[in-house]
Amino acid sequence: MASSRGTHRFGPGLLVAAAFIGPGTITTASKAGASFGFALAWAIVFSVVAAIVLQEMTARVGLVTRGGLGEAIRASVTQPALRTAAVVLVVAAIAVGNAAYQTGNITGAALGLEVLTGWSRPALSLLIAAAAGVLLATGSYKIIERVMIALVVLMSGVFLVTAVVIRPDVGALVHGMFVPGVPAGGLVMTIALIGTTVVPYNLFLHASVVCEKWPSDVPVAEAIRDSQRDTVLAIVLGGAVTLAVMITATSLESGFTDAAAMAKQLEPLLGAWAKWFFAMGLLAAGVTSAMTAPLAAAYATCGALGRATSMHGAGFRAVWGVVLVIGTACALLFGKTPVQAIVFAQAANGLILPVVAVFLLIVVNRARIMGIHANRPMVNVLGVAVVLVATGLGVWKLLRLFGLS
């Protein structure tokens, strides 16, 4: 058993962190820093805490049930009509959210590739979508994904170092991190910062991958402890990168529209190389996420519907294919305003988050499913607080849209 502990202790949390450090995170945090300075840093702190709470829950569900979150949601609702309603809500939330997220992934990758090649953005969006589709269909995406994640990790390191090099106003940063407030025009950005870190599809992805890292021969209590450490370390690191992006972006003009303009935040460290390095990182982040999001949507949808989750199954392929097509179509439609499209995609996920989080809370409190590993009261308090804040921001946004706030 010692070998199992040594081999399977860390890993899934890093995958989750790499999945949310995509072009959406880089663009959204850059836009937030350029437009509002450190005023929305608290949203990153909140999103890190929220991500730890929710990802820990879903990893625990996976380790206890040895299945995905979609299957657990089906099992948690026994009344047929309610089960149907739950499945429809989850599938709709994941389908809409992942299609929106995929729009940001493809748009972000196209932005990076545009800097490197000079080709037209619509053509690049189609090229990236086609490449992602081929890789998903063949199943050979894993090797390329490792390379892409390595590039994203390298880019994250550069942001962290640059954030130190530029010597930010520490007092203003600490104030922004721990004194919540939404400046005029900052509501969508606040929701987007939360939506880009606490990604609904990551909840489904995490529940599945923990079973591969901690197999059934590892005691459940031990696997849960190791998973909790893994989750906290990885998400805190991901949050630090997001905060570093915001810090470095405070030197940018708020109206930037392309990757070359965003790359200026890295010039204090990289000089003339900033544009090329940023473009490669943005491309890597976009392509990696463009493969991960459709896969997670397929796992979530097939699990909720009680269908097989084999990568070679027709239904599984159909789901990721639909998400890829819709995301590509939206990327082409909103290609003239890429930064706005990416921020909107993150905000859409922020609005969808409460739906998935509520079902996760229901599952993790079912004693017949979770046994002695059901939620403790304090974890429930934190989970409900996350749902209330995310819901409150979403309702506030809707009220403002209709002129009621």
Topology:
Blueprint: H1 2-8, H2 12-20, H3 23-36, H4 41-65, H5 69-76, H6 80-117, H7 121-138, H8 141-165, H9 170-178, H10 187-197, H11 200-213, H12 220-249, H13 259-262, H14 267-270, H15 274-305, H16 314-333, H17 338-364, H18 367-370, H19 377-401
Entry summary:
With 405 residues, this protein is mostly helical. The protein has 19 helices and no strands.
Features:
mainly alpha, Amino acid/polyamine transporter I, disordered N terminus
Q: How would you describe this structure to a colleague?
A:
With 405 residues, this protein is mostly helical. It contains 19 helices and no strands. The chain starts with a helix and ends with a helix. The N terminus is likely disordered.
Euclidean distance between termini CA atoms: 58 Å
Return Rg in Å.
Answer: 20 Å
H and E order:
HHHHHHHHHHHHHHHHHHH
> Which architecture per CATH?
Up-down Bundle
Tally of separate domains: 1
Helix content: over 70%
Tell me about the largest β-sheet.
none
CATH superfamily: Amino acid/polyamine transporter I
Average pLDDT taken over every residue: 85
Structural shape = globular
CATH topology: Amino acid/polyamine transporter I
Percentage of residues in strands:
under 5%
Please count the helical segments: 19
- The low-confidence parts are 1-9
Q: Any idea of the CATH class?
A: Mainly Alpha
